[in-house]
Design a protein that fits this description.
There is one protein chain. The protein is mostly helical. It contains 13 helices and 3 strands, in the order αβαααβαβαααααααα. β2, α5 and β3 form a beta-alpha-beta unit. α6 packs parallel to α8. It starts with a helix and ends with a helix.
């Protein structure tokens, strides 16, 4: 995800005036989620890409090919007394080709492997059609797990494995362990050079290219106060990120009543909110959930 953020930020226009951004960029992160099932559907993905390419800002008019299509479907719906028909994958593909006749565009799709497996090929076909039929230069940047295969005509297949970021992982581990040994560990758990080497080796081997695994593992280890317990915890680190998240969930479940309720309420808001909440908004939302509690209990939560 971080790689795609860097790519998108380098391509995203810094000005919202149409004339200053002739090369629009569309980005979508696919995900299999019960909270957002649309993020795994090809038709929704193509629709989201089309929306970004036809207008990057609410104050900028929608580009004519899409505006004309809307007027056509609206007139038909008004005549029939029906709802406006939603665009299909083929409609979105055709309109993207029409939009990019006069200028170049970039399409970025992260985590294609999270798309519905039986319909994933729809996106490959759509991208092949766009590349083959667009008059202007359309760049398509797609990521998926290396275990999956994707071939687009005329496109390079770049594979990134654990070996590609091993040096970065090593530097992160060494830096964090140094900080851990000088700032964060209790006095009775000072790290000798030999023990430090053991920690570094364990974290590098277990990371498997995952920066987040290193960060969460170190965060988990800092809660250990004594050397024997630290060694045991080091040897029992989960091999997958999901195991580290399971540990956090277990800790929340074992928290006292109010702490557990606050944590689960925060999760509910984060999952259901229609936009990113600020810290102040999230605190207010959680606090409201306890309006029926005795005032003393409610104030003691924060």
């Amino acid at each position: 995800m971080e790689i795609f953020e860097r790519v998108f930020n380098s391509l995203a226009p810094r000005d919202t005036i149409l004339e200053t951004q002739p090369y629009p960029t569309a980005f979508f992160y696919s995900a299999r989620s019960t909270a957002e099932p649309a993020r795994a559907k090809p038709v929704e993905i193509m629709g989201a890409l089309l929306r970004q390419l036809c207008s990057c800002d609410p104050d900028i008019p929608i580009k004519e090919p899409v505006a004309s299509e809307y007027r056509l479907w609206k007139a038909k719906a008004d005549k029939d007394g029906s709802a406006i028909q939603r665009l299909t994958e083929e409609d979105c593909t055709r309109l993207i080709i029409e939009i990019t006749r006069d200028y170049s565009a970039t399409i970025i799709l992260d985590a294609l492997d999270e798309c519905e497996e039986d319909k994933r090929y729809h996106l490959r076909e759509a991208f092949d059609t766009i590349i083959s039929n667009s008059v202007s230069n359309v760049k398509i940047f797609v990521s998926l797990l290396f275990l999956q295969k994707l071939h687009l005509d005329g496109c390079r297949d770049i594979r990134i494995s654990v070996k590609n970021n091993s040096d970065d992982i090593k530097r992160l581990v060494q830096s964090e362990v140094d900080y851990l040994s000088t700032k964060r560990l209790p006095l009775d758990c000072r790290i000798s050079p030999k023990f430090r080497g053991q920690i570094v080796e364990t974290l590098i081997d277990g990371a498997q290219g995952m920066f987040r695994w290193v960060e969460m593992s170190l965060e988990s280890l800092t809660r250990t106060k004594f050397r024997p317990d630290f060694k045991i915890a080091l040897g029992r680190l989960p091999s997958q990120l999901s195991g580290l998240y399971d540990n956090i969930h277990t800790q929340i479940a074992q928290t006292q009543t109010y702490g557990r309720i606050v944590a689960t309420t925060i999760f509910k808001w984060l999952l259901c909110a229609q936009r990113l909440l600020s810290t102040q908004e999230l605190l207010a939302a959680v606090y409201t959930a306890y309006a029926d509690m005795p005032s003393s209990s409610a104030f003691n939560l924060f």
